[in-house]
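Can anyone check this?
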Amino acid sequence: MCGFVGIISNQDVASEVYVALQAIQHRGQDSAGIGTMVEAGNRFNMRRGLGNVVHALKQSDLDALPGPIGIGHVRYPTIGGGTVDDAQPFFYRQPGIIMAHNGNVTNYGELRESLLERSIHLLSHCDVEPALCEFADHLVQSRPKDHTLDDALGALKEVLKRVRGSFSIVAALMLDGKPTMVVLRDPNGIRP
């Protein structure tokens, strides 16, 4: 069990995400993290740490997280170890996506191998990372930049074809020239 929150506003959201993470702290105390995106979508900021929210993230971390769109996560590990490399959210550089999840991806090994065949390397043992890589890879295959909501929907359909398990996912990226948040859950709707 993990917990995540996503907020979109017309002002910086890091402080609000931090407070929301404290409210869902009971869902995971292994690590906590926040990722934000500036309104222009050309800069992403991440801070992650081990332990509960107040130990993992300090005021200096929140000050380094500008942006009106943000995702926060508290982790209870079901796969991977208790290292900061496995803390969420995750960021993928191309096309620029922040992602977090709650759940279990049951075909992590199969996804890792499939991604390696495309020269995409995972940096953690967290099971949301291959879902993020699949989403980003399919999104960039649709067009190299200036992605649309239709592009994202197509990429999310591919994620649902490849990623198995029970999960809820949240992602932030630029779509149709605007900061956008998308959510996805497994086809059986197991995770709320």
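Reply from J.R.: I decoded it. The chain has a mean pLDDT of 94.
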